[in-house]
From TrEMBL:
It is an enzyme of class 3 (hydrolase). This is Peptide hydrolase. It comes from Geranomyces variabilis. One of its GO terms (molecular function) is metallodipeptidase activity. One of its GO terms (cellular component) is extracellular space. Its EC number is 3.4.-.-. Its main location: endoplasmic reticulum. Residues 268-469 form the Peptidase M28 domain. It holds the Pfam family PA. GO terms for biological process: peptide catabolic process; proteolysis.
Amino acid sequence: MLARTFGLAFFTASAFGGATHAASVPASAPTVNGTALAGWADVQKAWLAVQMLPDSGVWDRLAEMTDTFGPRKIGSAGYANSLKWLSDQLRADGLNVTNPDVPNIPTWARGPESLTLKSQPNRPNYNIPVLALGSSIPTPKSGITAAVVPVTSLAELNTTDVHGKIVLVNYPWTGYGAASRIRALAAETAQGFGAKAVIIRSATPVSQRTPHTGLSRRANIPAAAISPEDANLLHRLYNRSLIDAHKYPAPVVSLNLASTYRNETTHNLFATLEGHTKPKEIVIIGGHLDSWDVGAGAADDAGNLFAAWESIRLIQKAGIKLKRSIRLTGWADEESGSSGAAEYTKYVQSETKKPDGERHVFAIEADFGIAAPTGFGVATDNEAGVKALPLFQAAGAADPFINAKGWGAVQGGDYAEVDVSFLDDIGVPVAAPTTAMTSDRYFAFHHSQGDTVDVVKRDELFANAQAIAFWAIVASELDVAWI
Ligand SMILES: *[C@@H]1O[C@H](CO)[C@@H](O)[C@H](O)[C@H]1NC(C)=O
Ligand SMILES: *[C@@H]1O[C@H](CO)[C@@H](O)[C@H](O)[C@H]1NC(C)=O
Ligand SMILES: *[C@@H]1O[C@H](CO)[C@@H](O)[C@H](O)[C@H]1NC(C)=O
Ligand SMILES: *[C@@H]1O[C@H](CO)[C@@H](O)[C@H](O)[C@H]1NC(C)=O
Ligand SMILES: *[C@@H]1O[C@H](CO)[C@@H](O)[C@H](O)[C@H]1NC(C)=O
């Protein structure tokens, strides 16, 4: 994820536990500006039926897909096979599944890679775990062998002689926003100063010597990430060499990266549960289907996609018909350019021009791993979001079950995750469920070999499915013009 919402995540101690499968008493309709919420009785009717239902095994399905097909880098067999498996499952659930084309997008695939420390006589040919950054060019087959020069920021490149060297950007962690900016721009910036390659400290505050990948703008020099521990090691070796280069040889490394880069057509995944009285009004829920090519992309972002899938299953099993259509979205290519969301937004715009076209009235996306729910964040950077916020606040505050769980806090702010931010930009109200996820917990595994189903907890995954079901029912059943 690119975590457009990160930083505003609402961290409260959630009243997780105290779960009850007994139906709560329906609340009387909450009011906004002295007017009762129209359609609240329909929200309650649907939600009372949904809230009592047990987990249908969502964690096991997440484990099955990620164990069977592995990570889902856009353009890979893992993506294509997961897309097919999930589409088949959703069709078997009775949903209307489509896989529209996302044409001609760049797809990058990792090849064999290594980083070897060459200069330390007592640690000959010491191998440092390394991951190329996405869209990096490969090195020549013989690799690039050069002295390492550390900097702590991209600005420091202006005052450091990096010509012919491998630049190490060993910045202090101040948050994901700053780190991901360095990751995106390091190669392009260092190439301007004549560097041969760039290596960055991985974007994480917590590490057990694991590198984390992520997107780099494609430049004319290769770009890779190493663990924070190894970035500090190379930096210390360099520092000591400044004291006595004879006694402490300056670090020289040999970098070998292979990769392919070509344009291909890929596909989004949509699965629609048709609405009863307003089928052309679409409420989107979901996450992105693609992932990085290491780990299994279980938390980023299959977990959120599967939580939303489970929400739809709950609604189906409750035997209720919602007014509006609920569309599960598995966006393609969030990690490498968001072309899936951009392509869909063109469709949304063309539908809006048709008199009988689909109207996208609300879009929910979660992309910050799976943790205990705390509430809902409505993006208030468009007019429809500002209008929707008090309605969701009233709904969250009024529902007994949601309140008993501690999931009812609704805030406004920058809550548009990357894919739905395209819809936000054209005026669709968008939102993200909020959770107790923290930076230390999430970025420890994010974009690394550590993102496997083990980092997703069963109870938290199902709790997210329940919470998303509630917010989707509010979006579907309230008799308001969202847009
Ligand atoms: C409530 O009243 C305020 C002030 O008149 C107005 O701006 C807002 O749109 C109203 N909200 C709703 C949901 O009607
Ligand atoms: C399924 O969805 C597509 C695209 O929204 C639509 O064209 C088609 O008519 C739907 N099919 C059914 C059986 O509802
Ligand atoms: C590859 O895809 C990008 C983005 O869609 C496009 O700008 C570029 O022209 C494409 N290249 C080729 C060779 O088709
Ligand atoms: C480096 O200096 C150039 C010109 O002096 C300036 O345009 C650029 O923004 C600086 N780069 C950084 C990363 O500070
Ligand atoms: C390297 O030396 C600089 C300048 O003394 C210092 O600020 C920095 O903390 C040192 N880095 C490491 C990793 O020891």
